[in-house]
């Protein structure tokens, strides 16, 4: 067992506090990672704020970048000293059709999450990357591209892959028009990715102050979604609209903005059910889709693409002892665009 130090939530509403615990002994194909950076995701905030007080302490964090410090005897992909990244999936059954296709995020048995998941071997509760060290099977670790900033790479392991997969699947490419709804942690990466894929990208935002920033990140046009006149001018324009917003909102204006056979894909997770008038889908033979995370093949492809195009998240890096500051500010939406914790500070 290897003793590490982290930051855990013990009950909802309380601040995250220092927590020392033990990582498992390395199994045959495990690697141990000294964590350098860990991104702060909205799902981490949800885990902290809604934690069952009767549950054991939980260490959040699933956007991990670090250095391999030890390897199991059967490890073939990594050596001590390698820089690696780990995302929100720590294991899967490896045998179902989804896993065999490299889409482990849709494992038929259910994935083992980087934290909060139950280890299939010993039944222990997984603890995440808000810690000095992590242990994971090499199958779910990725070489860190030398071309990318390590801190900026951490959010790619969740926000990056979550937006990359639907952009690739539904055709962000030259000659295609793509709309991005929302310009937060997910949206700003979706904008950069779609632009790098060659699509004509339009940013939808509620904030007039983000227009110049959106154009800097690759938007050819910015539409204020609260302006009825501007929204009316979008009808029938887009091959794909990627909706990254996590707050309740109406889908009708974005469905109307789709061209014939267009797709509206949801990657944000609002807290309320969404209303979809059937005729908005039927008219124009439109598709309403969803996407979330990605498998090992898709994740490696995303990292290679980002390295080739110099795409990383725009981050504010805080020392790990300011984790509660990061969570409080994230709850107020006071971040542009992702917090990353320096786990060495």
Structure description:
It is built from eleven helices and 17 strands. It is α/β, with parallel strands linked by helices and 345 residues long. Strands 3, 4, 5, 8, 9, 16 and 17 form a seven-stranded mixed beta sheet that branches. It has a six-stranded parallel beta sheet with strand order 12-11-10-13-14-15. Helix 5 links the parallel strand 10 and strand 11. Helix 4 packs across helix 10. The protein folds into two domains: 186 residues, Quinone Oxidoreductase, Chain A, domain 1; 132 residues, NAD(P)-binding Rossmann-like Domain (Rossmann fold, 3-Layer(aba) Sandwich).
CATH topology of the largest domain: Quinone Oxidoreductase, Chain A, domain 1
Helix content: 10-25%
Number of helices: 11
Computed over alpha carbons, the radius of gyration is 20 Å
The backbone outline, from C-alpha atoms, is: globular
| Quaternary organisation | single chain
Give the SSE string. Answer: EEEHEEEHEEEHHEHEHEHEHEHEHEHE
Spans where pLDDT lies below 50 across 5 or more residues: none
Please give the CATH class of the largest domain.
Alpha Beta
Beta-strand percentage range:
25-35%
The CATH homologous superfamily name of the largest domain equals Medium-chain alcohol dehydrogenases, catalytic domain
| Average of pLDDT | 95
CATH architecture descriptor name of the largest domain:
Alpha-Beta Complex
Number of strands: 17
How far apart the termini lie comes to: 24 Å
The figure for the number of domains is 2
